[in-house]
Design goal:
The protein is built from 2 helices and 5 strands, in the order αβββββα. The protein is mainly β. It has a 5-stranded mixed beta barrel with strand order 1-2-3-5-4. It is elongated, with a radius of gyration of 20 Å.
């Protein structure tokens, strides 16, 4: 770019586009469950996937996936959410973080404990 082009056109900053708009660039956001239910996945799969409708602290409602086998969420439970879509459920682009606020971690989990909020009890000395 020549000097004249710089003076005449003045480079403009590009606006950053977020993948997860509800998070607004934050790694996590706090919210409150307003509905807890199950939904069915896309075509080749068949199951009941747990999800929660959450109103964020920014007053924006979103759908979130609840990871793990069981959960103890109810209406008005406070939760912490993060980005990360679920490939076989359309319209769900967020996940609830287990082991924080009202969503308990999974018991007896041996592998992938950090994703499910499980403590390492093998390292505790008695």
């Amino acid at each position: 770019m020549t000097y004249i082009q710089v003076i005449l056109n003045r480079l403009k900053k590009k606006n950053h586009k977020y993948k997860r708009k509800a998070l607004k660039g934050c790694p996590q956001k706090k919210g409150t469950c307003i509905r807890v239910g199950k939904t069915t996945p896309k075509k080749p799969n068949s199951a009941n996937r747990p999800y929660a409708r959450v109103i964020l602290s920014t007053k924006q409602p979103i759908n979130c996936h609840i990871p793990g086998e069981t959960h103890n969420l109810r209406k008005f439970s406070p939760v912490l959410i993060r980005g990360g879509r679920v490939p076989d459920i359309p319209g769900i682009n967020y996940r609830i973080i287990r082991g924080t606020l009202d969503l308990a971690g999974l018991k007896d989990r041996k592998n992938g404990r950090s994703k499910y909020g499980t403590k390492d009890f093998t390292r505790i000395k008695i």
